[in-house]
Design a protein that fits this description.
393 residues, UDP-N-acetylmuramoyl-L-alanine:D-glutamate ligase, 5-stranded mixed beta sheet
Length: 393
């Protein structure tokens, strides 16, 4: 079995212990949609933040971080992190997982390669000369959301701006499952998403799309729904995974249930809307995943209880959503390995997603670096099983 993915791959520089109440943050919060200011829980491009603040980016970053070095530097990106996770968990089941994307010709690119080299993930990386590897500075305030933490992101696209549908090899479409993750940070690929999805469905692939905050389109048209390629993309998505803010922006609505109904009406096969520590909203039309009306599903109570008992285990929330997506890939792959192409239980999908996202809270950044094959799968086993029991699987 083969899983292939394309989209966002970058280096996360995580600054822990920030305070959004500091004057430096107060001066830089966005005042109007798309104005280039910082967005709590959202993403802005470094170039736009410079224009907003009328200062060089390094000066801005120094003011926000008090000129300190990042606490953690790790492999990040909604596509590559999800795929590393799936590769690690499925390694002993001989599932081949690959990532396709772009890097620059710099030290950051070598960090990407060295991080992936220690995982079972295969890569096809386009090297873009004279461009830096994409980077995100993550500003983490652990006091937000009643102590569960919040992050704000500043992204530099770099080499990711030079990767599009034309760079995806034919072998990509010979996979059983296709992931397109965080493509809003890979603009050419995002604008051509409909062509990639159409080709994948024509080849019989199962398609999963995970989104990320689309600042480019938010800036271009603040009061219009974000595009996902063109509208035909939706009809070729078997599972769409978005967070609440992304659901609202993609649908052009102001209520999460209304957003779900709107996205469903676009022709997707199944939908998961994550809401941080709140219940997810899930739905399936009954193709790959068994038919299910719009329903609430919980996050991992097991992980909540574990972290409440021992707060020292809690690190940061970076990568929770990316690993959630990786968990759904694991659930789909394991279902296919049983010889089944329909009737996947949404509760099983959520069990793997919620457990994978929840476990991410116990280490810094999105990518977990295993000391041995099977380590992450073993850590997840009790979390997944507890979730199954909690929802009656």
């Amino acid at each position: 079995m083969r899983i292939a993915g394309a989209g966002c791959c970058l280096i996360d520089s995580i600054y822990m212990g920030c305070s959004y109440a500091d004057k430096a943050f107060e001066e830089l919060w966005s005042r109007e949609k798309g104005d280039g200011g910082l967005i709590e829980g959202g993403l802005v491009f470094s170039e736009d933040l410079q224009l907003f603040a009328k200062k060089p980016y390094q000066q801005i970053l120094d003011s926000l971080t008090k000129s300190r070095k990042p606490d953690v530097v790790n492999l990040g990106g909604p596509a590559v992190v999800a795929l590393v996770h799936a590769a690690q968990v499925l390694a002993e089941q001989k599932v081949e997982v690959s990532f396709h994307g772009a890097v620059g010709k710099d030290e950051q690119a070598e960090l990407v390669r060295s991080s992936v080299a220690n995982s079972p993930l295969k890569t096809d990386l386009k090297e873009v000369p004279d461009q830096r590897t994409a980077k995100t500075d993550v500003l983490d305030d652990p006091t937000q959301r009643d102590g569960k933490g919040e992050r704000s992101f500043i992204n530099t696209i770099g080499a990711a701006g030079y990767y599009g549908p034309q760079d995806i090899p034919a072998s990509f479409y010979e996979s059983d499952i296709i992931l397109l993750g965080g493509t809003a940070l890979v603009p050419q690929l995002h604008d051509g998403l409909h062509t990639v999805l159409a080709t994948a469905k024509a080849r019989g692939c199962i398609t999963v799309v995970g989104t990320v905050y689309d600042f480019r389109n938010e800036k271009a048209a603040p009061h219009k729904p974000w595009p996902l390629g063109d509208h035909s993309s939706y009809g070729n998505i078997d599972l769409l995974i978005v967070d609440e803010e992304e659901a609202l922006r993609l649908s052009g609505t102001t209520d999460v249930k209304e957003a779900a109904d709107r996205l469903i009406s676009y022709g997707i096969g199944a939908l998961i809307i994550t809401r941080g520590a709140l219940d997810m909203l899930v739905w399936s039309g009954g193709s790959l995943i068994t038919k299910l009306p719009l329903t609430h599903m919980p996050v991992s109570v097991y992980m909540d209880d574990l972290l409440a008992k021992d707060p020292s285990l809690r690190k940061d929330t970076t990568g929770c959503g990316d690993n959630f997506v990786g968990g759904t890939l694991v659930a789909i792959a394991q279902h296919l390995l049983k010889g089944k192409k329909t009737d996947l239980d949404m509760r099983e999908v959520c069990a793997w997603g919620a457990a994978s996202g929840g476990l991410t809270l116990t280490y810094h950044g999105g990518t977990f670096h295993e000391s041995a094959v099977g380590e992450k799968a073993a850590l997840l086993e009790p979390v997944v099983q507890a979730y199954r029991l909690s929802v009656g699987v």
